TrEMBL record:
Keywords: ATP-binding, Gluconate utilization, Kinase, Nucleotide-binding, Transferase. Pathway: Carbohydrate acid metabolism. This is Gluconokinase. GO terms for molecular function: ATP binding; gluconokinase activity. GO terms for cellular component: cytoplasm. PANTHER family: GLUCONOKINASE-RELATED. Pfam families: AAA_33. One of its GO terms (biological process) is D-gluconate metabolic process. Its EC number is 2.7.1.12.
Length: 154
């Protein structure tokens, strides 16, 4: 978890590859109206996120009920969002990709083919409630080090 541009998808792909499990990107579960809102530079509200978070929780439950393991890349900015995501799922563990504003802005401005504009970085930083129950990793570390820490500590 982490704000836009923190490397959630990249790290999730690598962790999933190392564990030989599936990776899900929460962005793929946003309803079209949320995507359009973000594309226009408008931050999502808690109401916008409610159904999305519930759908993600249900997807995780479905997969875990079948005995599958999964890595989910998701912003999960607030504790109440994380509470919805892991409701009824005591096996969920969190990796928080912590980054400073300048690094995030640089990364987001270099992305192509993504709906999240750099204008939303500040709103995500304002909304962020850093988790107290997560493995915390500095996003400036090399990808290999971040993945190694995730694999060792989760």
């Amino acid at each position: 978890m982490g704000i836009c541009g923190s490397g959630k998808s990249t790290i999730a792909i690598e962790v999933a590859r190392a564990k030989r499990i599936e990776m899900l990107d929460a962005d793929d579960f946003h309803p079209p109206r949320n995507v359009e809102k973000m594309k226009s530079g408008t931050p999502l509200t808690d109401e916008d996120r409610a159904g999305w978070l519930q759908a993600l929780n249900e997807e995780l439950k479905s997969r875990l009920d079948k005995g599958d393991s999964v890595v989910l890349a998701c912003s999960a900015l607030k504790q109440r969002y994380r509470d919805v995501l892991n409701a009824g799922l005591p096996q969920v563990r969190w990796l928080y990709l912590r980054g400073d504003r300048e690094t995030i802005l640089q990364r987001v401005s270099q992305r192509q083919d993504h709906f999240m504009p750099s204008s939303l970085v500040d709103s995500q930083l304002e909304a962020l409630e850093e988790p107290v129950d997560a493995v915390v990793v500095d996003i400036r570390l090399p990808i290999e080090e971040i993945v190694a820490k995730a694999l060792a500590e989760l």
